[in-house]
Amino acid sequence: MSKISETSPKHCAKKGGINIKNRHKKLFFTFSTFFTGLLLLIFLVWLILHPEKPEFSLTEADIYTLNLSSSTTHLLNSSIQLTLFSKNPNKKVGIYYDKLLVYAAYRGQQITSEASLPPFYQSHEEINLLTAFLQGTELPVSQSFGYLIARDRSAGKVIIGMKMDGKLRWKIGTWVSGAYRFNVNCVAIVAFGTNMTTTPVASIQGTRCSTTI
């Protein structure tokens, strides 16, 4: 007499559940392998192209006003115009610049309000000139500001820092990276005129700026 083998409904359901789980696992491993490979490809392209930091230099800085409101207050009025030279040194990587803010500083003190520059795209090895007019009206400064600026004026020159903060994105082919914060620091050695309120004073020596990302 042959043995009758019966599979219970519970056993079938369990077996079917295992098959479904196996399918899900296969799909999961397929997609994870695909995305891992894609990320690895992007990373390899990134390593091969190796984007270099943008280059900036200060080509001109004109100071029109740099005076305390009065001898008894510590409020500064200032107006400065500057021109920056910007270069993308990469041969195969473009750069998007976003949210650019420029301001001037003297001995660690901000002496103008922040000026906003329009966002722009810089193609491979492209060069751009950026201009900004910086102004400050009754900005609070330290008590020693008047003494320091007078001492530098008597020496015939003053060192002004030009700073730019912003965000950039790398463009490789059609792929665009996330945003990276960057900072640019420039130094302008400016010769003082006899009357800072009426006589524009030009600086520049074409100083190279430092860029950090």
Largest sheet: 8 strands, antiparallel
| Content of β-strand | over 45%
Overall pLDDT score: 81
Which overall shape is indicated by the principal axes computed on the Cα atoms? elongated
Q: Which segments are poorly predicted (pLDDT under 50) over 5 or more consecutive residues?
A: 195-200
What is the first-to-last residue Cα distance?
Answer: 83 Å
How many domains? The number is 2
- Measured on Cα atoms, how large is the radius of gyration? 30 Å
How many helices? The count is 2
By oligomeric state, this entry counts as single chain
- Helical fraction equals 10-25%
Number of strands: 13
Organism: Arabis alpina
Main location: membrane
GO biological process, one term: phloem loading
Keywords: Membrane, Transmembrane, Transmembrane helix
